[in-house]
Design a protein that fits this description.
α4 links the parallel β4 and β5. The protein has five helices and seven strands, in the order βαααβββαβαββ. 27% of the residues lie in helices and 25% in strands. The two termini are 20 Å apart. The chain is of the alpha+beta class. It has a seven-stranded mixed beta sheet, sandwiched between helices. The protein has helices at residues 40-48, 52-59, 69-76, 124-138, 153-162, and strands spanning 32-34, 81-87, 90-99, 108-115, 143-149, 168-171, 174-180.
Amino acid sequence: MNQTQLSPPPPVAVPASPTLDVASPRTDAFPIRRATGGDLGKLSEMLDGLSELSLYFRFQTAVGHPPRASLIEPLLNPNGESWVAEHDNRLIAHAMWAWAHGAPATPTAELAAIVADPYQGRGLGLRLLTLAAAHATAAGAAQLLLVVSSANDRTLRLIRRRWPTAPAERDGALINFTVPTPI
């Protein structure tokens, strides 16, 4: 998350779990659940095993090995919500949404996800981002923000397939996509 704010807009009643059927045969074997503070060690282990390129694409900066707790804790406790996907009792993906700062008066939620290298390209990132988008929308977000490295072709294609009409704005080496809700 690049632009998360410290204080969210006023609370809005959120349904416990918006129903989405975004699972696919390639991702059904990977259960998704809400992230908790107890996932700190597992998320640290997952991030520590990622390629430098995957880490850079997600955080747009160098990440130490092992990653500092100060990097991981906000991923598990954002001012929105976060989820993890598991396989064989190990985390293989993380996604979240958080209220964005610096946005216009429109309530904006920033979405972000990271998938372990061996599990990329199977639709898991899309499944997690769709879940995060639905929850952010239910919480009152009028638009979604996705900040992507201009070199991250796989994620750029994913966003353009899922939200083909999303306006894109170049910001140095990053591309900011703004997706109006509902999705």
